[in-house]
């Protein structure tokens, strides 16, 4: 936009909170200043290319410092920007140290400073030895607290017992914070019996997710705390979550692109290994219904990479985590359009709802006063995923070789186009 104060971008398919409209969006400095008639002279005329709010991905594992060879802030945020994601919220594990006290948050922030292509916020962690010190971490600026009920996969981030979960929830309720739960009941998990996908799937049954969700609901009811269920895979969880929502329990839930687009019946490789696991196609259809009904309100990546060596071996050995940060939008749009959903639905799941979950009031919507985070997205464009061409650190993704609908043509972060190599992202 040169040295002018104002930028005007217009599109016949601008996704506003009320739906798609032909309008021009006026940007002043870093903020959206006006929604104007489409015939306003524009600096950027997108025509039939859609204009979306920048996506907010509230479930990203960056892993820096400590496991930067798995993923770092520079590579993850470059992937995000290229994929139309203008804000990520980083998970408290698998970096070392994990984000479980204010000192560790300061270490994370120092590691991220000056390297980020998009804006970055942070979740904290609730582990057995910090349950009485969560308020300090809350006051240091995390948006909420993630915990596990089953082993996390890394030894420095330990799961909570039911008693510890109750203690954490009471503490978090005392300052009206948010608890995020990886919900699998360890009593219903089995040791994997062999290297195949079928054996892995049997070891993590849907009952384990449902049982953990029921425990979380009971304790949320008891303590009054606001809770969020991470990465719902088992559709059997939808019924108890819907009932709790109807009964006024403060509970929300997310799912992820891999649960919505892959299935256990395919020939899945270990790039697709994650916990909880990807289940069958009937389960997948029910997750889409959960989104349509609003029981599930967010679709976020759970981008959780590792080095390729750790993804080798059978499903009983390989690291659990899927890499998809850069391509979540076309992965979801390709399937959503086939199922009759609109771009506005996708924006609701991938921008507005994650921003609301983290309390990012100035993100996730195209409206006056919001940050001018914008994405030019060609909904009818097509491309084939090449893992090696993606910007995240290690060239692995289960979507390699897939042809997807929807091409991100450009991204603006707070009013300015994201240029390759730029690091204008701020730490929120
Ligand atoms: Zn995760």
Descriptive report:
The chain has a six-stranded parallel beta sheet. The mean pLDDT is 95. The chain is 28% helix and 22% strand. The chain is an alpha/beta fold and 428 residues long. The chain contains eleven helices and 17 strands. It has a single domain (54-364, 380-405), classed as TIM Barrel, CATH 3.20.20.140. The site of zinc ion has 5 residues, from loops.
Mean pLDDT: 95
Instruction: List the domain count as a whole number.
Output: 1
The molecules bound to the chains, other than polymers, are: zinc ion
Q: Which ranges are low-confidence, i.e. pLDDT below 50, for 5 or more consecutive residues?
A: none
Q: What is the structural class?
A: alpha/beta
Total helices: the number is 11
Tell me the major beta sheet.
6 strands, parallel
The helicity comes to 25-40%
The general outline is globular
Strand content bin: 15-25%
- Side by side, the strands of the main sheet go 9-10-11-12-13-14
At the first level of CATH, what is the class?
Answer: Alpha Beta
* Rg calculated over all Cα atoms: 21 Å
Quick structural overview:
The mean pLDDT is 95. The chain has 428 residues and is of the alpha/beta class. It has eleven helices and 17 strands.
Short key terms for the protein model shown above:
428 residues, alpha/beta, TIM Barrel, six-stranded parallel beta sheet, four-stranded mixed beta sheet, globular, binds zinc ion
